[in-house]
Amino acid sequence: MLKRISVQQLTLGMYLKDFCGSWMEHPFWRSAFVITDPKDLASIRASSITEVWIDCAKGLDLAPDDSPVAVAESVAEVDIELASTASKKRETASVSSGVEFARAARIVTRSREAITAMFGEARMGKAIDSVGAQRLVDEISDSMSRNPGALVSIARLKTADNYTYMHSVAVCGLMVTLARQLGLDPQQTQSAGLAGLLHDLGKALIPTAILNKPGRLTDAEFTLVKSHPEKGHQILLEGHGADAIALDVVLHHHEKTDGSGYPKRLKGDDISLFAKMGAVCDVYDAITSDRPYKAGWCPAESLRRMNEWTKGHFEPRVFQAFVKTIGIYPIGTLVRLSCGRLGVVTEQGSHSLLRPQVKVFFSTRSNERILPTVIDLAHADAAYKIVNIEDPEKWKFSNLSAIWSGLPNLPG
Known about the structure:
The structure is a single chain. The chain is α+β, with helices and mostly antiparallel strands. It folds into 3 domains: about 1-90, no CATH class; about 95-325, Hypothetical protein af1432 (Orthogonal Bundle), CATH 1.10.3210; about 335-405. It contains 16 helices and 10 strands. The longest helix has 27 residues, at about 95-125. It holds the Pfam family HD_5. This is HD-GYP domain-containing protein. It comes from Candidatus Accumulibacter contiguus.
């Protein structure tokens, strides 16, 4: 029997079926598990969640003199209630990047914590519940619906210690928006997002010292790193509710269309559409992010280089669709305008990939900062155009991310 109870009634030994509220309100990436750790119990009570569902058939029941808030005879009744609650809270109406940045920052932080916990459980040999991971995908997907560039831009800001987890968030978001651009149906889009979230799960079994090594890997270390697709695939197979698309992408996101990839050296049409999508999204986020062994390239420069690799590495149709999703000048790109001012891209153009919104903040003529001003290059009377992509390192701008996001403390 399923019972909805107050978190104050929750005790060790109870089987937690689900939380009555958004996953953003509690500290766990999944919900169905037996509560055995007093720290978990304390975390639940300290969160903003006030009620949960327990399954008395799989764990301890309430004390005889304790009354539940509600009782359900079947899982279906609980699922309907939770689905109804979730649908009321989900917001997907389009907003500007400036509006979405703050919300996206919270989602990135919460997702990073959840994925860190997920990888930790994988290291300890615990089964991964793909259904539980879907909750993260829903929140990331909703952010991408509101604004395709905000979350991915923030997730690009990583440190060496959290690279793998933030990378998973970014690739999830990129997969969702790419799937929509390719015209995939909602279920396929959600599966693509889940695949992006889990694509590097096998790295949970690779020593952190190797993943974060600042110097060149030895042949043995590189061979170990290249084993992560197969390790991740096996982890999912041993878990619960493994999605077929996620299994495929986890195993094949390092395959290349010319057959030079790994682990199976597949080529051309032998690689699924979803694995080809995973390859593009994985590489883009990797090369735009700072790594222990190299600084990330700027978004626009990364697209230029990826275009050079299209023959043999990426499926041209998939790559072209990807460029349309993030723009020729992605958010955060430092550009020089024809007036001599420097600015960062804050929003894609509504009608042209070549005319985004730019926040100008520096004059190259006077060589000094100016009052930040947003210029919409797509506006009919816009007098300026982008003449060059600039290297942030050359100009030594230390707070570029705060300029384009408007947020002083971004997750990273």
